[in-house]
Amino acid sequence: MSAPIGSQTANIAMTAGMPPKRISRTRRATFFSLVGLGTIVGAWLSFIFLSENGMRLSEWALLLVFIPLYYQLNVGFWTALFGVWLMNRSKPDPLDLWLTLSVDDHEQPIEASTAIIMPVFNEDVTRVYEGLRSIYLSLEATGQSANFDFFILSDSDKASQWIEEETAWLELCRQLQAFGRIFYRKRRKPINRKSGNVSDFCRRWGKRYRYMVVLDADSLMSGALLTSMVRIMEKNPGIGIIQTFPKQIAADTLLGRVMQYAQALYGPPFMAGLDYWQCGEANFWGHNAILRLAPFIEHCALPPLPANAPFGGHILSHDFVEAALMRKAGYAVRLLPTTRGSYEEGPPTLVDMLKRDRRWCQGNIQHLWLVFAKGWHPMSRVNFIHGILSYVSSLLWFLFLALATFLAATPTPHGDPQAVLAEEILLGLTAMLIFLPKTVILLDEVITGRMFKPLKLRLLTFVSSVLDTVVFTLMAPVLMVFHSRFVIYTVIGRSVNWVTQRRKTDGGLNWAEILITFSSVTLLGIAWATLGWFVSKAFLIWISPILFSLVVSVLVAALVSGSRSGRRFGLFLTPEEHEPPTVLKTMQENLEEIKDRIQLAPELERHYGLLQVCLDPYVNGLHVSLLRRRRTIDVSRSYLDRIGHRLITEGPQALNAQELKALMHDTDTVTNLHYRLWSAADHELAPFWATAIRQYNLASTSPFAHTLASREVPAA
Amino acid sequence: MEALNIQFAPETGTEEEWNEAYARLADYFRAYNLHNRIRRTQLILETLRKAAEAHAKDPGRAPTAHAIEQARLMLLEWFGRIYSDMNLSEAQLEATGRLGFHLAGGPVRWPQFFLDEENMPEDMGEAMRSALRTSGPGMQVSKMTPRDIDLGLIPDVAEDTFDRLGRHPILRYSVLLLIIFGVLGYLYSLFA
Question: What ipTM score was computed for the predicted complex, to two decimals?
Answer without folding.
Answer: 0.81
